[in-house]
Each structure stands twice: as C-alpha cells, then as structure tokens.
Design brief:
two-stranded antiparallel sheet; Ferritin; 174 residues; mainly alpha; 78% helix; 2% strand
Length: 174
C-alpha cells in the first residue's frame, strides 16, 4: 500500500472523529456527573486534535510529498477497538469499568497509530505533528487510568449515590 501525507492526515482526522463520537456516546450512558464531565472533556480534546490535524494538513498541502509504501499493523487493532466501543455503547446495562477499559485501550491504540504514521511521514512537520498527537493520546490514557484505578480500588464507594458530591468535596475531579 502506498500512502501520501494527505492520506495520513485523513486517517488521523477520521480517528479523532470516531474517538469524539465514542466519548460523547459513553458520556450519555453514565449517571455520574463527574465521569460524564471527564468523558466530555476527552471528547472536546479529540475535537481539538481533529482541528489541529486539519489546519496542519491545509498548511502542508502545498508541500510536495511522494507516496510511501506502508504497512500499518495497528490499523487492525484500531478496527477491533472501534468495534468493541460500538458494541459497548449499544448495551443498555454497560458497566462504567467496561467503558473505561475500552476507552483506555482506544487511547493506547491511537497513540500507537500516530507513532506508526509518524514513521511514514514524508515531511518533518508531519512527523512532528503525529508524534505530538501520540503524546496527547498517552496523556488521555493516563487521565482515564487514574480514575479507573480509583473506581476499582473503591468500588462500593463508587456505587453509592453520594459519589459525585464526595468527589466534588475533595476536589478529586480531573
């Protein structure tokens, strides 16, 4: 398969659009205000990433780049996690821990995707942008992981009705 920087940007934009849609859908399923806010924050972040990619694609479109032959192994992983996410959001009784596990996996796969795409970038600017996005996806994973670990450590407290108020009171909202 041969790919140009334009196609790299298109893959990245589509990835961000799908991630944003998934976070918004997941946010609509949770009863916790804090978790909903966190997921909507991540949805906004994915939207910002899309905007960055689109601006960079526009800026670089005048630069000539020759197509490069690539084999992106992570695309299969990306497809699997997208299917998992689609299945999870269709469940009427999806557990919040399952949502977090899938979201964390999606962030790691996105990080891997951007790192692989960076290796095929035709320009240094494209490579830099993709590496930066990979770092941002890792940061999203870390945000999710902290909250997930807390939920797993204190599952009974998490299930209580006063969870949101407690989190607000101790300023634990990320």
């Amino acid at each position: 398969m041969e790919i140009t920087d334009k196609e790299v940007f298109e893959i990245a934009v589509n990835s961000e659009i799908r991630a944003k849609e998934a976070y918004e859908k997941l946010a609509s399923l949770t009863k916790s205000d804090i978790i909903r806010d966190e997921l909507l924050f991540l949805a906004r972040e994915e939207d910002k990433h899309r905007e960055i990619i689109e601006k960079m694609a526009e800026k670089f479109k005048g630069e000539r780049s020759e197509p490069k032959k690539i084999d992106i192994d992570v695309m299969a992983e990306f497809k699997v996690i997208a299917e998992k996410m689609a299945e999870a959001v269709k469940k009427p009784d999806v557990n919040i821990d399952e949502i977090y596990e899938i979201a964390m996996e999606a962030e790691l796969v996105s990080e891997k995707l951007y790192k692989e795409l960076a290796g095929y970038a035709a320009t240094e600017n494209t490579k830099m942008l993709l590496e930066m996005l990979a770092d941002m996806e890792r940061n999203h994973y870390n945000i999710l992981k902290r909250q997930y670990d807390y939920i797993m450590r204190y599952p009974e407290l998490y299930k209580e009705e006063f969870y949101d108020q407690l989190m607000k009171d101790i300023n634990f909202n990320f």
